[in-house]
Amino acid sequence: MPPTGLPAILPRPPNRVRVNPFRSPNPSDSVSNGQANPRPEAPFASGQADRKLPRRTRLGAAFMALGLLVPLVLACWLEPDARGHGTHQQLGFPPCTLVALCGVRCPTCGMTTSWAAVVRGRLLDGLAANVGGVLLAVAAMVSIIALSSTAVLGHRPWWFPDTNGLAWIAMAIAAVTLIDWLVRTLLL
Q1: Is 180 exposed, middle or buried (0-12, 13-18, 19+ CB in 10 A)?
Q2: Among candidates 132, 140, 137, 120, which has minimal Cα distance to 174?
Q3: Checking DSSP bridges between strand 35-36 and strand 31-32, what pairing results, if any?
Q4: DSSP letters spanning the chain
Q5: 129-146 pLDDT, tens per residue?
């Protein structure tokens, strides 16, 4: 309600109950005492995995899987540089500016090299190039499997993390990449 003395400029929207598209309707737990359920059940909670995702979501999962497949296929065509960085130059990109100007590798130096090594099964070479790059390549491979499964079967695999889990994994990979860079820069 607007404060007394002030006219109502916009009408107040009606009370609406939040609907979870992943949950089968059950009037007894969706509304209690005229209030919306304060904690709606999370999608894919126990017993919800049999519910199919909408076609739009499944297509999105398929396109994300294809988007992650592109850099992996590209990495198959590249030969890892023996220096541990510089593989991106095979794609026509210039050398790393920080290496060229200061002689110091940047945190992402060696990412392309590590992906090219990982797709060949040379994990130690990939780890020597960039630890974060190896983690990203492995995360991409696992995500391709999960997203393809989601697109085909219509639900997220039970072992694949939700959005919050993916955010924590991304932050952990970024932290590992920065720590690896600091170790390479300060100790080597």
Answers
A1: buried
A2: 132
A3: antiparallel
A4: -PPTTS--SSPPPPP-----TTS---HHHHEETTEE-SSPPPTT-TT-TTSPPPHHHHHHHHHHHHHHHHHHHHHHHSPPPTTSS-GGGGGTPPPPHHHHHHS---TTTTHHHHHHHHTTT-HHHHHHH-HHHHHHHHHHHHHHHHHHHHHHHSS--TTS--HHHHHHHHHHHHHHHHHHHHHHHHH-
A5: 999 999 999 999 999 999
| Distances from the Cα of 51 to the Cα of 144, 157, 188, angstroms | 21, 12, 53
Q: Do 132 and 122 contact (CB within 8 A), yes or no?
A: no
pTM: 0.68
Q: Which amino acid is at 46?
A: S
pLDDT tens across 57-67, in order? 999 999 999 99
Length of the chain: 188
The token duo for 74 is 């590209």
